[in-house]
Write a structure and sequence with these properties.
By secondary structure, this protein is mainly beta. Helices cover 5% and strands 45% of the residues. The strands form 4 sheets. It has a 6-stranded antiparallel sheet with strand order 5-6-7-8-9-10, with no helix packed on it. Strands 11, 12, 14, 15 and 17 form a 5-stranded antiparallel sheet that branches. The longest helix has 7 residues.
């Protein structure tokens, strides 16, 4: 079915979500249900299109992770190489973003054969994650991306590499814009509230759409979800937070709100 006034600017970004399709359009990320399209990129639209050169949009591609309900949109950002990924949780209608390095393609593969304990090397204690996380079961979906140098890398959620080195995992929020009435009344933002759990996480803040960052410090977390106030000093309408691993520690963040 033809959709008037809506085009797909990068064919490799089309992914099927059961009864609908997601794709990168000329001015938004769209969901097509067979009858019409709905824009789903409001949270990231301004940043996405301001940093993605039109001349290189055809390089963009997407990878779908049905197991975790994630649509990962890899785009060239600020140049010709694919250097940024926008990840859409289509169950929660939520976007996150991350930086990547010179990627050219990606896809999802299903393991056709189970991996047994005898095929693993080293000791059980030295292996990262749990046995299930190692992917040792038939039918597991493996997400992989390829680089311009010919390397193929699996995308996973481990906190350490296969060699045991800590990964500096990080997550950036979208830009939160406070209304003029709020800013006029309170002048400065002095605290933000974060709900998190885990070991510890480092927190940074940006007021210029991620161009520069100021470290706010390290939060010591607890195993259960808990809310914590982070002291800040922001004189402006826009704020973006970044959460980073502290010495490879594991953590999760699920909400953020102004005071």
């Amino acid at each position: 079915r033809a959709v008037p006034d809506t085009g797909c600017s990068a064919p490799r970004t089309i992914c099927s979500l059961d009864n609908s399709h997601v794709f990168l359009g000329e001015d938004d990320v769209y969901l097509f249900n067979g009858q019409g399209v709905t824009g789903i990129g409001k949270q990231i639209r301004r940043e996405l299109f301001s940093g993605m050169p039109r001349a290189h949009r055809l390089r963009a591609f997407a990878v779908l992770n049905r197991d975790e309900s994630l649509y990962s949109l890899y785009v060239p950002y600020g140049g010709a190489s694919v250097s940024k990924v926008y990840i859409y949780d289509y169950q929660r209608d939520h976007w996150t973003t991350d930086e990547v390095s010179d990627l050219t393609c990606g896809g999802a593969l299903e393991l056709g054969q189970a991996v047994t304990i005898d095929q693993l090397t080293g000791t059980i204690d030295a292996l990262p994650g749990t046995i299930d996380e190692l992917g040792g079961y038939e039918g597991r979906i493996v997400r992989a991306v390829g680089s311009g140098a010919g390397a193929i890398t699996e995308c996973d959620g481990f906190a350490v590499t296969d060699l045991g080195s800590a990964i500096d995992a990080r997550v950036e929020t979208k830009d939160f814009t406070f209304d003029a009435e709020y800013v006029d009344r309170y002048k400065r933002i002095t605290t933000v509230m974060v709900e998190a759990r885990g070991a510890s996480v480092m927190v940074d803040v940006s007021v210029d759409q991620g161009a520069t960052w100021v470290a706010l410090g390290t939060l010591t977390l607890a195993p259960a979800w808990a809310r914590q106030e982070i002291p800040v000093d922001i004189a402006g309408r826009t704020v973006r937070l970044r959460f980073r691993s502290a010495s490879g520690s594991a953590w999760r963040v699920r909400s953020f709100r102004r005071p």
